[in-house]
Design a protein that fits this description.
Strand order of the largest sheet: 5-7-4-6
CATH topology of the largest domain: Ribosomal Protein S8, Chain: A, domain 1
Distance between the termini: 212 Å
Largest sheet: 4 strands, mixed
CATH class of the largest domain: Alpha Beta
Protein name: K Homology domain-containing protein
Order of helices and strands: HEHHEEHEHHEEEH
Number of domains: 2
CATH architecture of the largest domain: 2-Layer Sandwich
Strand content: 15-25%
């Protein structure tokens, strides 16, 4: 027997060397989000941002150009007087009044153009408000101009005289025959008339506007308390001479009517013989 001792150790299954464990699958770790500090917006900054947006919106608005063409009632011969010397009438009655009424100033333009026998106003404005306002004042100027043109050179003479109201119809005459006779006399004798158009009116005395007329009193032999107003409307280039002629002829017709009335009176009205 050998002196050497051999240690025999039987390994159990548990004593066997464990195989290397499999590596766990690779997992990508989510990146860590770093949040930046939140900056608080002050009211002043909010207000400034709103103003900036408003300015941008306004800038977009100003890029628009509103255009329109408006037909006027004037003729080609009226353009000079409608516009005025160096555009004074358009400036005073249209563009300056438009600017005064606008909430904010706006660039506007108004020019006139002939198209055949018609006259148009070409309008340009930066805002719709400016365009509407300019149209309003343009049409007001157009209306005032046409009214003034209608009565240009027209003269009214008003004569007040003693005359019975019940005789007004007699003064006019059947179908206006007597009034027409007075018209014809004025046209025939007044060489200062610009046109052969005379308008005559008679009515009971009442308050009148003493504007754009000449007023006078015709005294007659009539002792009646009732008064009438006789208006003569003409176009003349010599107002003073036309006044004298009209006054004389109106007096002539009034006195003739009074005389005819006295002749027609009943001779027994005051007791007869």
């Amino acid at each position: 027997m050998s002196n050497s001792l051999e240690l025999i150790h039987n390994r159990s299954d548990s004593d066997e060397e464990d195989p290397p464990s499999p590596k766990p699958p690779f997992r990508r770790m989510p990146s860590r989000l770093v949040s930046a500090p939140v900056k608080k917006v002050t009211k002043a900054e909010e207000s400034k941002a709103e103003e900036s947006k408003a300015e941008e919106s306004k800038a977009e608005e100003t890029k628009k150009i509103f255009k329109d063409s408006v037909k006027l009632d004037i003729s080609k011969d009226d353009i000079g007087r409608f516009v005025g010397a160096k555009g004074a009438n358009l400036r005073n009655y249209v563009t300056e009044r438009t600017q005064k009424e606008l909430n904010e100033p706006s660039r506007i333009r108004c020019s006139l153009e002939e198209k055949g026998d018609e006259v148009f106003a070409n309008l340009k404005a930066q805002t719709e408000e400016a365009m509407d306002t300019m149209k309003k004042f343009l049409m007001k100027h157009n209306e005032a101009f046409m009214k003034k043109k209608k009565f240009a050179g027209q003269t009214r003479f008003v004569f007040k005289t003693s005359f019975e109201h019940c005789r007004i119809a007699k003064f006019i005459g059947t179908g206006g025959q007597n009034i027409r006779g007075l018209k014809d006399d004025i046209i025939e004798e007044d060489e200062n008339l610009v046109e052969e158009k005379v308008h005559i009116q008679i009515r009971e005395d009442s308050p009148i506007r003493m504007k754009n007329l000449r007023f006078g009193v015709i005294k007659t032999d009539s002792e009646k308390d009732e008064m009438v107003l006789i208006t003569v409307t003409i176009k003349t280039n010599n107002r003073e001479e036309s006044w004298k002629i009209s006054e004389r002829l109106v007096r002539k017709h009034v006195e003739k009517m009074i005389q005819n009335h006295q002749t027609d009176e009943d001779p027994f009205e005051d007791g007869g013989w």
